From TrEMBL:
One of its GO terms (molecular function) is DNA binding. The keyword Transcription regulation applies. PROSITE patterns: CNMP_BINDING_3, HTH_CRP_2. Residues 1-13 have a biased composition (Basic and acidic residues). This is Cyclic nucleotide-binding domain-containing protein. PANTHER family: CRP FAMILY TRANSCRIPTIONAL REGULATORY PROTEIN (PTHR24567), HTH-TYPE TRANSCRIPTIONAL REGULATOR ARCR (PTHR24567:SF74).
């Protein structure tokens, strides 16, 4: 998965007519992107698709997909993070996932012609590649696309089942730990605050604060405002 470190080179991005900043294409960074939806393509085929995508740099937070609305595009994350949230009928906002480099959002909606199942909002200094269904289907043969979509749904089904198991069978303290690990998804830092963790774990903020304090004391995490850096994820797993 591509690194989340910011490029220290001069930013040659230019402002587009939509007020957003359209970033320049760099073949080096594109070569590192290997999204699941493009599995099975050769390196040349994958790079050809990526070069036709529209690069987009969002310096500040921006809502790129809105729950219940038609998708404007599909987005591949090059750098930064995208927060995915779901709004239920009672007005509760649930943090579903924090997507990172190499992940896509909106791919299911652009291929199904359905409205967005969740809202996606970027974190500051996020770089994206945007594309539509026509470009995707032109570059990815149907058998490969179908297999990759099935693999994507399989992974999401596993995640959903894992989350259900966490909710039903684990105490609050364990739920906080497991939700942190799920959000991290092999990344060292999780962009999440205590209120969001409490909501996901179905417990009080006091419980979250206590668990985070215990993890800090054990040397497993470091916390800062709105983020948790995981130092030893293996030791956070239950049974370790």
């Amino acid at each position: 998965m591509a690194s989340d470190r910011r490029d220290n080179r001069r930013d040659e991005s230019v402002a587009g007519s939509d007020g957003r900043i359209h970033a320049p294409r760099t073949s080096g960074s594109l070569a590192q992107l290997r999204p699941m939806l493009l599995d099975g393509l050769s390196d040349a085929q994958r790079l050809a698709f990526l070069k036709e995508c529209q690069p987009l740099h969002l310096p500040g937070p921006a809502e790129i997909l809105s729950q219940g609305e038609p998708p404007r595009s599909c987005y591949l994350i090059v750098q930064g993070r995208v927060e995915i949230t779901f709004l239920d009928h009672d007005g509760n906002v649930v943090l579903v996932h924090v997507a990172g480099p190499g992940e896509m959002v909106g791919e299911v909606e652009i291929l199904s012609d359905l409205t967005c199942a969740a809202t996606c909002r970027t974190y500051p200094h996020t770089r994206l590649l945007t594309f539509g269904a026509a470009l995707l289907t032109r570059h990815v043969p149907p058998p490969i696309l179908m297999r990759n979509l099935a693999a994507l749904f399989h992974n999401r089904l596993l995640l959903h089942s894992r989350m259900r198991a966490i909710t039903q069978f684990y105490p609050a303290e364990a739920r906080v730990r497991l939700h942190l690990l799920n959000l991290a998804d092999n990344r060292s830092e999780v962009q999440v605050n205590q209120a969001q963790l409490a909501q996901m774990a179905g417990c009080s903020r006091q419980t979250v604060n206590r668990v985070l304090g215990e993890l800090r004391a054990e040397g497993l995490i470091v916390t800062r405002r709105g983020a948790v850096r995981i130092l030893n994820g293996a030791s956070m797993k239950l049974g370790d």
